[in-house]
Design goal:
The protein has a single domain (about 5-225), classed as Alpha-Beta Barrel (TIM Barrel). Helices cover about 50% and strands about 10% of the residues. It is built from twelve helices and eight strands. The protein has helices at about 20-35, 55-70, 80-95, 110-125, 140-150, 165-175, 195-200, 210-215, 215-225, 230-250, 255-265, 280-300, and strands at about 5-10, 40, 75-80, 100, 130-135, 155-160, 185, 205-210. Strands 7-6-5-4-3-2-1-8 form an eight-stranded parallel sheet. The longest helix is centred in the last third of the chain and has 19 residues, at about 230-250.
Length: about 300
């Protein structure tokens, strides 16, 4: 089960030769745990799942579970071709992971029935529970989402699409049909920008890419949101999150590349992203560093509790 706090999606460190650095991954995760995330999601989007071999994926799952050591739930990414997704689920389960975040299948167009069948087959083969990630080519209708919620091994739905009206319809339909608890998570890029809106739909849990490289900023925003401290959240939105999102939009894949660059900027040599992603330019890195400094400055302000 998920606990209170933002969701931590660690990056996957590569050394100078481009090979997986497991010891640095463990250090990255342990550092993040000290800031109290709600759960750890390894080898997912920010962890460059698309660029990992099955052997690397299994090693990341094993090292992540070891690093967390039972202090928080650990979910491991799976996705892509159906046989690969099933293999990833089994590897995660063998390592002791608590569940799977199921990313979209290979980028082909598929009808709703095909997407549901993909999830059903992965969930049936997975020894651990599955959270379905709706994004890119895996966009689910209300009817399809209700069918997903009816699969016994599917425990949640993470929205990376951002259609608020559709999401509200899905929540109402699933909660009306489901006879068990079912998680709804906000998985939009730079989710802090939409956190207040999704909280209004009773979706308070969100993934934070910023947490991976600036947990102080991410937790300050989380605390401010929970304490209704608009001074804190508005300042971070205006002076950190909005300009960070603008920088993120300058190149495809920067939702991952900037996170990894941010981790490196904080002192962990996690290496470059793998192709086809690209790393930020020196000028973009300087802008990222300036944003980091400003966000950290704001996050040090005391959180105020306000009544409304």
């Amino acid at each position: 089960m998920l606990t209170k706090g933002v969701l931590f999606f660690p990056v996957t460190p590569f050394d100078v030769d481009g090979t997986l650095d497991e010891s640095l991954l463990e250090r990255h995760i342990v550092d993040g745990l000290s800031h109290g995330p709600g759960a750890v999601f390894a080898a997912c989007g920010a962890g460059e799942l698309h660029a990992l071999s099955l052997e690397e994926h299994a090693r990341i799952a094993h090292r992540s579970v070891k690093a967390v050591n039972g202090h928080r739930p650990v979910y491991v990414g799976a996705g892509g071709p159906l046989p690969a997704a099933v293999t990833m689920c089994k590897a995660a389960a063998e390592c002791g992971a608590d569940g799977i975040l199921l990313l979209p299948p290979y980028l082909v167009s598929a009808p709703q029935s095909g997407l549901v069948d993909y999830v059903m087959q992965v969930a049936a083969a997975s020894p651990v529970p599955v959270i379905v990630y709706a994004r890119a080519n895996a966009r689910f209708s209300v009817e399809a989402a209700v069918k997903l919620a009816g699969i016994s091994n599917v425990i949640g739905f993470k929205d990376g699409v951002g259609d608020v009206e559709l999401m509200q319809r899905i929540i109402i339909a699933v909660r009306g049909a489901a006879s068990r608890p079912f998680w709804f998570l906000n998985g939009l890029p730079t989710a802090e920008l939409s956190a207040a809106a999704y909280r209004g739909m009773n979706m308070p849990i969100y993934s934070s890419g910023v947490f991976a490289f600036a947990p102080e900023i991410a937790t300050a925003f989380w605390r401010g949101l929970n304490a209704a401290d608009r001074q804190m959240t508005d300042a971070l939105l205006a002076e950190f999150y909005v300009p960070f999102a603008e920088l993120r939009e300058e190149a495809a894949g920067f939702a991952v590349s900037l996170i990894k660059a941010g981790v490196a900027a904080r002192g962990l040599p996690v290496g470059k992203v793998r192709a086809p992603l690209i790393d930020p330019t020196p000028a973009q890195l300087r802008r990222l560093q300036a944003l980091l400094e400003r966000g950290l400055e704001i996050s040090m302000r005391p959180t105020e509790t306000r009544s409304h």
